[in-house]
Amino acid sequence: MTERDPHATAVIDLLGLVAYGELTAFERLAADAGLSPTLDGKAELAGMAAAEFGHFRTVRARLAELGAEPTEAMDPFREPVDAFHEHTRPSGWLESLVKAYIGDTLAADFHREAARFLDPDSRAVVEAVLQDMGQAAFVVGHVRAAIAADPKVAGRLALWARRIMGEALTQAQHVATRRSALAALLIGELGMPEPDGSRSPVDPGEVGAMFDRLTAAHGKRMAQLGLNA
Amino acid sequence: MTERDPHATAVIDLLGLVAYGELTAFERLAADAGLSPTLDGKAELAGMAAAEFGHFRTVRARLAELGAEPTEAMDPFREPVDAFHEHTRPSGWLESLVKAYIGDTLAADFHREAARFLDPDSRAVVEAVLQDMGQAAFVVGHVRAAIAADPKVAGRLALWARRIMGEALTQAQHVATRRSALAALLIGELGMPEPDGSRSPVDPGEVGAMFDRLTAAHGKRMAQLGLNA
């Protein structure tokens, strides 16, 4: 398998995207920890940030293992990922909590879907960074309490969560148009790996099914937060 | 040993100070990672930040083990530690590297000195957070290269490092005047723990010797960076 092989290119791209996503998630969560009105909340977001950094390190190591230069692999994704964060800057503590939760779980769902198309070793790396960071209970508790105290908060936060989802889709679109091997991998054009190392064709309806799964999971989490999707 | 026992109070104070120091070191390093001109540098500072968070978690767990409320234990140190960071905001990447290195190693030296006065279990916790974060080689290499490229940089960075040391001493003074049990512990007034659980008197000359050791180690690191102490 040479560098030019579309599957190898797509794997490096995917790992580069995941790595840069984790590194910037670290940065944003660490910065947002400063918005916390309490030391407990600050420690909670800081803990999520530290976990993201651990994920980044795992993925970076896999890139190096595959002979890729991690910085080069991440580079094509700096612009869209930075734009995502630029357009979703929380203006307060509750917005930062919703972003941490919605953003991270969306990313995890996407990683889970993408991992299915990878060779077993890279799949194991991507699945390893899916570990639950334990933030759900903390975020859900805080957001629901804030809505109970002031029901108007729910409408504002629902708009905010929709903006995060919309911006994620916009930037995903940008990535897909510029990184054709990665896009081909994710829509199943490169096939699904089989235990014998061959790749079997993917049902064309699978792309739509994947979007449905991502949307349904997002909707469920919005409901959990007490927000309309 | 009740809460009122000066040694128990001093231990909680010391752990609270260390915990808040680690949490804010995490925050500042994570923020300073954004000053890096390269992804490698960003990852390096982010890694240091994540390590600081790991230390914070260890110390917080020890506070809880001792029956202290971690947030309450940290609270008295928010003002001086925040003031330290407020007065030492790096204005660029090189300043952030020097602060990361000088600030962290000063803190580590202080922890090592303070640990000697603690009961074995708390001492083990404080010593565990002394692990080398491996930043020395990265920082020293970058700072020396910058000085080689433009020797004028050395004077500016030496002033900067002196400001960090001066600010650390200023805030340490504030802490000492407000937290008398902690100050008594650190100057040896509460004695040194013996294997049988008793405490033996400390030579009064020990305080001066401790300051001499801290200053000498700082001077050595300045020289390593290519800076005049």
Describe the fold and architecture.
Two copies of one chain form a homodimer. The relative contact order of chain A is 0.14. Chain A is built from ten helices and two strands; from the N terminus they run H-H-H-H-H-H-H-H-H-E-E-H. In chain A, 75% of the residues lie in helices and 2% in strands. In chain A, helix 4 runs antiparallel to helix 8 and helix 5 packs parallel to helix 8 (152-178). Chain A is an all-alpha fold and 229 residues long. Chain A has a two-stranded antiparallel ribbon. Chain A starts with 5 loop residues before the first helix and ends with a helix. The first copy, chain A, has helices at 6-33, 39-65, 70-74, 78-87, 93-115, 120-128, 135-149, 152-178, 180-186, 206-225, and strands spanning 192-193, 199-200. The radius of gyration of chain A is 18 Å and the shape is globular. The model of chain A has no long low-confidence stretch (mean pLDDT 90). In chain A, strand 1 and strand 2 (199-200) form a beta hairpin. The interface between A and B is medium-sized, with 26 and 25 residues.
